[in-house]
Design goal:
mainly alpha, 4 helices, 2 strands, 5% strand, elongated
Amino acid sequence: MIQGNGVRAYFLHKAFPELFDKDAVFHALDFILGTHPGSNTASFASGVGAKSATVAYGMNRADWSYIPGGVISGTALIQPDFPELLEFPFLWQQGEYVLGGGSSNYMNLVLAAKKLCDKM
């Protein structure tokens, strides 16, 4: 949801720059790249950042390899509300490569951030 909100924030800022601040776009992108609360600072985009999720549930999960640029769903809340992100490729609710929302929102946020930086 954070990624989707960041994409919507870009379009709102593009249409109404005096009403909507562009910082929401950068905050959503920062979240994907590892700026989130708690001790987990892993990037949800494989191969992007100093500490990224390189073990995930995807097409080549059997050999513990990764798909560069793949986006995982991210930290899961395990009862009783402990956030965790384990490096284990068979936990689909935390480390699965996601299409649609996760990867497309990530790509849109990167392009939006580039456009906003080019305007500066």
